[in-house]
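Hi R.,

Here are the chain sequences for the assembly we discussed:
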Amino acid sequence: MADQSDSMRAPKKEGDGPARAPEDLDIARLVHAHHGAVYRYAYRLTGSVADAEDLAQQTFLIAQQKLTQIREPRKADRWLFAVLRSCFLKNRRRRKPVAASNLEMDIADVAAKSRDDGVDRELLDRALRDLREEYRLVLVMFYFEDFSYKEIARQLGVPMGTVMSRLARAKSRLRQRLGYHHTAPRNR
Amino acid sequence: MKRNRLLKLMDCCRPGHDDLGQPEMVALAEAIDRDPAVHEEWEALQAWDRQLSEAITADVSVPPGLAGRLLDGLRQSAEREQRPSETARGCSPADNAEEGAARADSPTVAIRPRQHWRWWWPAAAGAALVAAAVLVAVVLRFGNWSDSLTGIQVAESARDWLHALATQEDGWLQQQPPTDLYPLDTTLRFPAVRWQRFRALDDTQAVAYVAELPPDRALAYLLVIRTTQGRQLPPVPPPVPDATTGNLCIGVWKNADCLYVLMVPGDRVQYGRLLRSGAFA
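And here is the predicted structure of the full complex:
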């Protein structure tokens, strides 16, 4: 592993200019520290083990090339998530759309088995996967990155009202699929 | 304020943050203070959000050996990037000084045909590539003679695959079905509850799903094989099974890049009834 670390260290630039990665930051260390979070984020965006691994690899490849952009190692995970999101959006433009019905699975029976055990992992996976990508993206940014809706709007370059609507619809669909029920207050 | 508007605002507030204190949330904050029902719903939604946040961020198992694979990929990429520059150095004029000097000494007439050839071969190679592409396209479009796979052949193989599936060590999985690469056909309207990979036609990777059929949740198998074969197969489940075996009926069809094999319990009558039921679009 030491060899890998040495061969994959960020390319050092001459001088002590601003485009220099922090001394204690190399790509191998970055992978070891953040591969779990990056994979989880990728999995939540793609809904597929294989795609998530590809996306994680793509993210770290870019990180390897642009390691000097990381100013604060403490916030490296934020930077990696932003790279990952950008890769995901680029891949999405290239990808052939898949009919929603292809992914549709009736989950009523599965739901009945495990509704009382908190959030059912399998149901959650499916519910997220069945969401439209723009809904899933804001939801993952909201929950995973803990972004406010204003920050999501700023990051994605879309109006705040759009993000609010997408969040509300995405959450509403998740609640529906995951069996959330709460007595609604009366309209006023 | 309407409930929908309140809910929309609630959905924008992160648990554990003071989002309710933001100016645009004043109306929501007032409604929560004023109305116990809204307060109750706010509390419930925030609790739900906390639960969901935890499940979304933590409840994904990381594949074993992922860090090693990622590092391997990075190392290979770094090596690939180094290689072209080494090749370029090897081909540089300085490295080939002797050859360059020899060329400079040779008569002009000897060089001219080589330059002529340099212009010709890319053009000839391009033309050959275009011709090959046209040929491949024609073969793919009209070349059904090489693809004689029938539903009966597939159905007969399916019995062996099912037997192999029953004896595979890995067993059936419940989580993360690979529906992106091996999608359930658009016509199916019943739940797949377990899945397993297996090898099918010509050692092709395939996935078997276990489905629960309405109305009594009887188990059925749906095999999904990504293949270019079987172009003449029907694009939807056949109304009559391609084969019956013991107490199973087998229907085979091809949609896009996937060949589907449906194995349902019962006889032809039950198979037909199932196809006409709400289980199929």
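Chain A touches chain B through 71 residues (CB under 8 Å). Chain A has two domains: 20-98, 119-179.

Let me know if anything looks off.

Best,
T.
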